[in-house]
Amino acid sequence: MSYQPPAIYGIIGYPLTHSLSPLMHNAAFKALKVNAVYKLFELKDDEELKLFFEDLKQEGNPILGLNVTVPYKEKVLAYVDSLDPFAEKAGAVNTLAITHQRKIHGFNTDGPGFLSHLEELNFSLKGKRIAMLGAGGTARAILSVLCLVNQRPAGIKLYNRTLSKARNLVEELAQKMDTSIVAVVDSVEDLNVELADCLINTTSVGLKAEAKPLVDPGHFHADMLVYDVIYNPAQTDLLKAAKAKGAKTSNGLGMLYYQAVLALNHWSGVDIDDKYKKVMRQTLESSLK
Question: Is 33 a catalytic residue?
Answer without folding.
Answer: no
